[in-house]
Design brief:
Elements (H helix, E strand, L loop, with lengths): L6 H18 L3 H7 L4 H9 L18 H14 L1 H21 L2 H12 L5 E4 L15 E5 L2 E12 L6 E7 L9 E7 L5 E6 L10 E12 L10 H37 L1 E2 L2 E2 L4 H29 L5 H26 L10 H10 L7 H13 L1
Parallel strand pairs: 1-4
Antiparallel strand pairs: 2-3, 3-7, 4-5, 6-7, 8-9
Helix pairs in contact: 1-4, 4-5, 4-7, 5-6, 5-7, 7-8, 7-9, 7-10, 8-9, 9-10, 9-11
The chain binds acetoacetyl-coenzyme A.
């Protein structure tokens, strides 16, 4: 066992921390209030190599391991979870799937630009009637000559309007159930592809979440990833890694709120002494620190398993389940430590509390993680 980070891990973590403080912090409250996508900041994240961290350098990626990725995700999420979900989707749901299962032509055409952050991508699985029940895909892709014709609606798509490339899951043969689902690369601007309204959300308000409508959209056969019928496995495999990214995001939200609460507790005086000297607050801080450390170990373990080429589906589900529960608990307590100041925007913790909630919902709700975990245990 070795609990030490390598020099490279520390350098990546410190670079992400520095970027978050210098580039993301200043406008984060305004972007949250206005629901404004962090466009310039995401562009800089691409320039610094944060948008394709694990991709092979030959496709313009950083060639880093998953541990580096989760360390960067944690630091960026401490400050701005709207920026970090954009980063997470691009890295783990779009670049990873394309690199692992895409054709050489697809990698040349799309992955290189996605990994460098020149463009960003979106992952389109959820539908109005297929959220947790992801096998119930209604979006269809019918093969007509040398292309597919795509019809249907996708919901709650992260990077919905800012993406240029969309990985779209669709039924190619409904009679085969989930084994008749395929996955396609769709480009923005294709005829019949309409981006719906932006969702007005509780948290991660800077992230652009949209519904997408496909009406007779022509997709060339060369834009199908893998064989027909591979789409559901693609989605599940991709989400196994995606959940490590969201677990790291949840960890960062929790750690960010905890750091603010700890600092505040040393400054704020009540009954003649800093509130950190009151046992009621000390116990809260102790619980927060313990939960965060446990979540961090689960996140790092899942990342390590992935890097070692071992099975990580079970570990990523556990990491996401636990880290997202910790994010919710810790942010609620961070608001409590701040008292009335915690309830106003200026102190950041109310935003982190709102942002925390989505980590229990997207990339598989906590209940879905329990299904994944329990099936692994019982099988
Ligand atoms: N890894 C690999 N394969 C998996 C898997 C996993 N974690 N979970 C299921 N599968 C495979 C199964 O082995 C099975 O394959 P075979 O038929 O070849 O054996 C197939 O998928 C179907 O699985 P089930 O029979 O278990 O199907 P089910 O309907 O009972 O349950 C589910 C499937 C696990 C509930 C799945 O539907 C699921 O994960 N749902 C949640 C979907 C989700 O996470 N959505 C997130 C949307 S993306 C998002 O949020 C991104 C964003 O913008 C931030």
């Amino acid at each position: 066992m070795n609990f030490e980070y390598t020099e490279e891990h520390v350098a990546v973590r410190d670079a992400a921390r520095e970027f978050a403080h210098s580039e993301l912090l200043a406008g984060v409250i305004d972007r949250d209030t206005e629901g404004k996508f962090p466009k310039e900041q995401v562009k800089k994240m691409g320039e610094l190599g944060f948008m394709g961290m694990m991709v092979d350098p030959k496709y313009n990626g950083g060639g880093m391991d998953t541990i580096s990725y989760v360390l960067a995700m944690e630091e960026i999420s401490k400050i701005d979870a709207s920026a970090s979900v954009c980063m997470s989707v691009n890295n783990s749901l779009v670049c990873w799937g394309l690199e692992k299962y895409g054709s050489e032509e697809q990698k040349e055409k799309y992955l290189k630009r996605l990994a460098s952050g020149e463009i960003i991508g979106a992952f389109c699985l959820s539908e109005p009637e297929a959220g947790s029940d992801a096998t119930s895909q209604k979006t269809s892709a019918e093969l007509v000559g040398d292309h597919y014709v795509l019809n249907g609606t996708k919901n709650w798509i992260t990077n919905g309007s800012s993406a240029s490339v969309y990985l779209v899951i669709a039924q190619t043969d409904a009679s085969k159930g989930h084994k008749g689902i395929s996955v396609f690369i769709v480009e923005k601007g294709q005829e019949g592809f309409v981006i719906g309204k932006k969702e007005d959300k509780l948290g991660i308000r800077g992230s652009d979440t949209h519904s997408l409508m496909f009406s007779d959209v022509k997709v060339p056969i060369s834009n199908r990833i893998g064989d027909e019928g591979f789409g559901f496995t693609f989605a599940m495999e991709t989400l196994n890694g995606g959940r490590i990214g969201i677990a790291a995001q949840a960890l960062g939200i929790a750690a960010g709120a905890y750091e603010l609460a700890l600092a505040y507790s040393k400054e704020r005086k009540a009954f003649g002494k800093p509130i950190s000297q009151h046992q009621a607050i000390q116990f809260k801080l102790a619980d927060m620190a313990t939960q965060i450390e446990a979540a961090r170990l689960l996140v790092l373990k899942a990342a390590w398993l992935k890097d070692e080429g071992k099975d990580y589906a079970f570990a990523s589900a556990m990491a996401k389940l636990y880290a997202s529960e910790v994010a919710m608990n810790v942010t609620i307590e961070a608001v409590q430590v701040h008292g009335g100041y915690g309830y106003v925007k200026e102190y950041h913790v109310e935003r982190l509390m709102r942002d925390a909630k989505i980590t229990q919902i997207y990339e598989g709700t906590s209940e879905i993680q329990k299904i994944v975990i329990s099936r692994s245990i019982i099988r």
